[in-house]
Specification:
By secondary structure, the protein is mainly α. The protein has one domain (about 10-140, about 150-165): dinb family like domain (Four Helix Bundle (Hemerythrin (Met), subunit A), Up-down Bundle). It has four helices and no strands. It is globular.
Length: about 170
């Protein structure tokens, strides 16, 4: 998938297009790797490509479903090996051996659909509700979109490096 062009009209549509673009970049990177590399780390931080994929699924769900929509999400921090990763420097992404790449790809595509639905249904200046995700000062949808976009861009770059280090690049 190519980067969205300036012809994509409207801020919400641009966010949706860029989220789709970065999800496709992540999936291209994951699919470029041999199976044995998906659970192998090549970086000092210790994460593996399947852990990165899980993190992105949980991250997008945390921001749009749990955070913006205020819906209950089972195990919103399920990508971390601690309940509150920001309070524990030892916390890191975690994926059990029983989790498959195929199941995470399916979840990433499903959360992408939810996000597109949010961007169609709400104006960018709508605020997230107060609740378990945002006990005070909830952000608006535009801020959430910018945060999620930078997460995707950063992690797509990280995965590009991993793919390059494995020699699996096209």
């Amino acid at each position: 998938m190519n980067e969205p062009t300036h012809a994509v009209a409207g801020s919400a549509a641009r966010f949706a297009a860029y989220f789709d673009y970065y999800r496709s970049q992540i999936l291209d990177g994951v699919f470029a790797l041999p199976e044995d590399e998906l659970r192998t780390t090549r970086l000092a931080s210790g994460w593996t490509p399947i852990e990165l994929l899980s993190h992105l699924v949980h991250m997008e769900q945390r921001w749009f479903v749990w955070g913006f929509l205020g819906e209950t999400v089972e195990d919103p921090w399920g990508d971390w090996d601690v309940d509150e990763p920001w309070e524990n420097d030892g916390g890191r992404w975690y994926v059990g051996d029983d989790v498959s790449v195929a199941s995470l790809v399916e979840k990433l595509q499903a959360i992408g659909e939810r996000t597109r639905g949010v961007l169609v249904a709400y104006p960018l200046d709508a605020r997230a509700p107060l609740g378990s995700r945002f006990p005070e000062d909830p952000p608006d949808l535009e801020w959430i979109c910018l945060h999620v976009l930078q997460e995707y861009a950063r992690h797509a770059g990280h995965l590009d490096i991993v793919v390059e280090l494995t020699g699996a690049e096209d």
